[in-house]
Design brief:
By secondary structure, the chain is mainly α. It is 50% helix and 7% strand.
């Protein structure tokens, strides 16, 4: 039986067949991935006889369907079929997961605090963009002083005063995501709030804004922006599985390594496609560092879904502790 290119790969990765085993060029890699599957089929077929090719194909289809619907330990109870939906249709699988639009009116999330500062700065008159198209220096400095505690701000400016929007990295990200979400735009050299933004604020208050920012961040914003570890689009594509792990295990403090381990365990085929960075970052270290930084910190913490605790408040510690916040179970609801 030929597997359709858009069907879940029979190896059980949860990926589409065309993006997994369909075009493997390396025979050893293909054998490593498909060997167990073929061995299982051979064992099942050794005492079977079929009256026709159609009968054999029907048997194989049924076997493949059962395999894709069976829960896998590597996926923490998800089946390959469910993982396929998580990866390719995260917002269009209501029988597995929903994203309610009605959330608490006061959302405790860094992105909302930053967006509110941005919206307040824009106001009714707009905020004049710099010659490079960024937010003005005075706004960045004043909003940074409002956002950070006095101690945090002092620590930041010890390295160097905030002179440009990109130096206030988290506000820079918020501005870019807000533009991607259609909430702000440039008009005649000024940043202004879009009509859609004003409508959402009037009708849905903070809930509507948060939902738009969330979808823009996972669908359009480039998670690899502003770091040196290279593009790993699959990490962003698998955001829903990461939220599933945090929802399931985040009730207690767990090490960031716990989540890195389980991501790598679920998707071992990712590593052969990752390039090392210099002589220090092996492919595995690239994935681990990227996952902790991009997924746990710059996504989940940024959206108020988890809290992070670093040893001794060391901002640069490679390992930290993670625990989910109540907002996570509001933002994404799993029906499994």
């Amino acid at each position: 039986m030929k597997t359709g290119r858009n069907a879940p790969c029979p190896c059980g990765s949860g990926l589409k067949y065309k993006k997994c085993c369909a075009d493997k060029q390396d025979g050893s890699e293909h054998q490593r991935v498909m060997g167990p599957v073929m061995g299982e089929l051979k064992e099942m077929l050794k005492d079977k006889s079929f009256g026709s090719l159609d009968e054999a194909n029907a048997f194989l289809r049924q076997h493949n369907q059962q395999r894709n619907q069976a829960p896998r330990d590597d996926f923490h109870g998800l089946s390959p079929e469910q993982m396929h939906r998580f990866l390719h249709f995260p917002f269009d699988t209501p029988h597995l997961v929903t994203f309610p639009f009605s959330l608490d009116s006061i959302l405790q999330a860094p992105i909302m605090s930053l967006f509110n500062l941005l919206a307040e700065g824009i106001g009714n008159d707009g905020l004049k963009a710099t010659a490079t198209g960024n937010l003005p220096r005075n706004f960045c400095r004043e909003s940074a002083q409002s956002y950070y505690s006095e101690e945090e701000y002092r620590r930041i400016i010890e390295v160097g005063e905030l002179r440009t929007e990109p130096e206030f990295r988290i506000m820079h990200t918020t501005r870019l995501v807000a533009e991607l979400a259609g909430l702000i735009r440039k008009y005649k050299g000024k940043f202004i709030l879009s009509r859609e933004c004003r409508k959402l604020l009037a009708e849905q208050e903070q809930s509507g804004i948060y939902s738009r920012l969330f979808q823009a961040f996972v669908r359009e914003y480039n998670w690899a922006y502003q770091d040196h570890l290279g593009e790993i689009p699959f990490m962003q594509q698998s955001f829903l599985f990461s939220l599933y792990l945090m929802s399931r295990y985040g009730g207690e403090w767990r090490s960031s390594i716990f989540y890195e381990d389980n991501f790598l365990r679920a998707f071992p085929n990712l590593l052969p496609h990752i390039q090392p960075v210099g002589s220090y970052y092996s492919p595995e270290k690239v994935v681990r560092t990227s996952y902790s930084s991009r997924c746990l910190n710059r996504f989940a913490r940024y959206f108020g879904l988890v809290e992070i605790e670093r040893p001794g408040n060391d901002l640069y510690s490679a390992e930290f502790r993670v625990r989910k916040l109540p907002l996570l179970d509001q933002v994404v609801q799993f029906h499994l």
